[in-house]
Amino acid sequence: MANDNMDGIHSGRLFAGSCIGLIATAMSFAVMGAIMNSLKAEFLLTNTQVGWIGGAQLWGFPVSILIFGPLCSTLGMRLLLRLAFLCHAAGVLIMIFAGGFGTLFMGALTIAFGNGLIEGACNPLIATLYPDRKTEKLNNFHVWFPGGIVIGGVFCWLYDKAGIESLAGLSVWQVKLAAILIPTVIYGAMMFAAKYPRTEAAQAGVTFGGMMKATLTRPLFLVLFVCMMMTASIELGPGRWIPAILEAGGMAGILVLCYINGLMAVLRQFAGPVVAKLSPTGILLGSAILSGIGLVALSFTPLNFAVLIPATVFAIGVCYFWPTMLGVVSERVPKGGEMALALMGFAGNVGVGLITIPLMGGVIDTYAHDKFDVEQTAVVIQHVQEQLPALKEDESVKYDEKLVASIDDTVALAASVLEFKAANNALKPVDTANVLRGAIKVKADSAIGQEAKKTLDPAELWGGRVSFRYVACLAIVIFVVFGILYLSDRSRGGYKVEKIVEEGA
Q1: CA–CA distance from 140 to each of 135, 314, 316 (Å)?
Q2: Single pTM value for the model
Q3: Rounded to whole angstroms, how far apart are CA atoms 335 and 211?
Q4: How far apart are alpha carbons 309 and 19 in whole angstroms?
């Protein structure tokens, strides 16, 4: 394959800028999760509206990857990364100065598009800069997704602990959002005017149609596409639920999640040279084993410091999934170019956001409900119906129209649950848990709020642990697939990196 003239192209600077861009992406995920309750209180948003704002990140990210990723050769990586910078900066500012739901949603969606542009442009950029070290350098690059989540999560936690109500005229949630601008400005300064190489596919004369054909007609890619949904689900699905599930058991779930992501970042960075000497399909096989074991163990371990043991096994297991999957596709389906990499990123995000996370929520709801003791829970529901209306006179509640309305809705729902119980000698699915959540929402430190929490938390913990076991079943499937790929490589003398054959050669 003919090489582009690399004169004037600073590989180290472009790689470092890509990493800082990924930090901005990951920080946006951590910060968005940390400010949802603040946005709800500040703008009097409904849970549905907050869900739309948070959900914009989940579907805006893969949509952006799918739209722009395959166009790296056509539009150029410089343009895509300039657009990423503009989206990150504009999205944060739109949210900081938002006047309500509409502008908050547009700001979140704009940030999500910036995230997708970083992922869609930087993966092929790094594969082009380091054609003989793709898997290793993609692992080094993806250090900064868990690393950025840790940076964002710890910053938000420390800022809350500091108790600073206002900084430079910005409220707490605005300061947290503004922190995303720090890595954004840095990567923008590093990459805005930089010189970029053409992608590998462009250098070899592979057209857009050629990339599509090489990608969609290659059985290996189709297998890896489906596997990407499963590996991403194992890695990111539990990550979305770990804080809530462990906090239901009395642990600081966000700190456990930061530990997992911090360990992943360290492993990707410092174990990279060792991993680079191993077979990528062998790495994926080992990851399937460790991630499955870690996730199952996490669902059984007592909630104390012992939980860090399965958390460590899980972190090691999922650590190399995402970058190694991208590396294998880039090395084994090289003619797919940025098209193949974009589709893999799309598969991972869609698999998690639209399938795994909602399904885990359904499993939690089902098994949590089964954990309720019918008679004891009915007594608590009766107490909610009787005691909650009195909280309308509480000074912290009576002037809040949303909470007063929530009391009325919860009391009506409690009556419905009790009627269902009287007729069926069973608790009403979903509504039972919602009555308890309603009591906690109104005033968690009240007597009825504490009674509801004491009833709900053990059930939520049980449902969450069962959901981990469901996701762990995916590890069995990918263990079989990666085992076949690994043995196939062994039978042919080891893992082989394929090179693009130049068009017309």
Answers
A1: 9, 19, 15
A2: 0.82
A3: 6
A4: 29
The stretch 391-405 carries a mean pLDDT of 82
Domains of the chain: 10-152+160-204 (1.20.1250.20), 206-499 (1.20.1250.20)
Q: Can you say whether the dihedral through the CA atoms of 241, 246, 249, 252 is positive or negative?
A: negative
What residue has token string 């530990």? 259
Helices and strands in the chain, H and E counts: 23, 2
Distance separating alpha carbons of residues 350 and 503, to the nearest angstrom: 33
Structure tokens at 344: 């893999």
Tell me: the pLDDT tens digits for 98-110? Answer: 988 899 999 999 9
- Say which DSSP state 171 is in: E
pLDDT tens digits, one per residue of 284-299:
999 999 999 999 999 9
Task: Say if CB 68 and CB 80 are below 8 A apart.
Answer: yes
CA distance 165 to 274: 46
Report in angstroms the alpha-carbon separations of 459 from 256, 290, 339, 350, 364. 20, 28, 44, 29, 9
AA identity, residue 329: V
